[in-house]
Amino acid sequence: MKATVTTLDAGTAGDIDLKDEIYGLEVRQDLIHRMVRYQQLKRRAGTHATKDRSEINVTGKKMYKQKGTGGARHGDKSVPQWRGGGKAFGPKPRDHAIDMPKKVRALALRHALSAKAKAGEIIVLDTAHSADGKTAALKTRFAKMGLKNALFIDGAVIQAEFQRAARNIPNIDVLPVQGLNVYDILRREKLVLTKAAIAAIEARFK
């Protein structure tokens, strides 16, 4: 698959070959869905908690005598029936993460990249570079490229000036290639890959 390499000034810098085994797969939405669910569940803190009747700090004295009141028989104020009592079957801290084989996760990432390529939403960038690290200047260059909502993936190391300039622009994310993931790919309209990122992705899927 051929792709045109562009520059940050909306110019062209030649062509590049994108491997069909990474960017040309027949997209499987079920795999992508499984991966997004895996990521979202893994991100959950799982710190929600309520107190059950054994954790409520109230007196253990019997509320009223067993007989003669004309009411039901009660002995403990910490039971769920009463206001201020414990919660029956309430949530407790736990890990929400589910298992997903490593090979399936890798395959889901390839399908997410293929989905973006099929939709024409991948842009290949020569280099992600900023001379002065100024947000206004970078925002102007993005406007020339028609980028309003995009994920930038660079090589293993991102230029500090480019990252600093891009972080204040809404709906623009910048990640190193090792941070590439299905959820972030799908949440942005455009996927911008530098030539260094493409080389690293190909090496990763060898």
Please describe the structure with a list of short key phrases separated by commas or semicolons:
206 residues; alpha/beta; 15% strand
What does this structure look like?
The protein has helices spanning 20-23, 29-43, 102-118, 135-145, 160-166, 182-187, 195-204, and strands at residues 2-6, 12-17, 122-125, 150-154, 172-176, 190-194. With 206 residues, it is of the alpha/beta class. Strands 2-1-3-6-4-5 form a six-stranded mixed beta sheet. 23% of the residues are buried.
CATH homology-level superfamily of the largest domain: Ribosomal protein L4/L1
Main sheet specs: 6 strands, mixed
Question: Helical residue percent?
Answer: 25-40%
Spatial strand order of the main sheet: 2-1-3-6-4-5
What is the global morphology?
A: elongated
**CATH first level of the largest domain: which class?**
Alpha Beta
SSE run: EEHHHEHEHEHEH
Please report the distance between the alpha carbons of the first and last residues. 17 Å
CATH architecture of the largest domain: 3-Layer(aba) Sandwich
Q: Would you report the number of β strands?
A: 6
Rounded mean pLDDT score:
95
Structural class: alpha/beta
Report a brief summary of the structure.
With 206 residues, the chain is an alpha/beta fold. 34% of the residues lie in helices and 15% in strands.
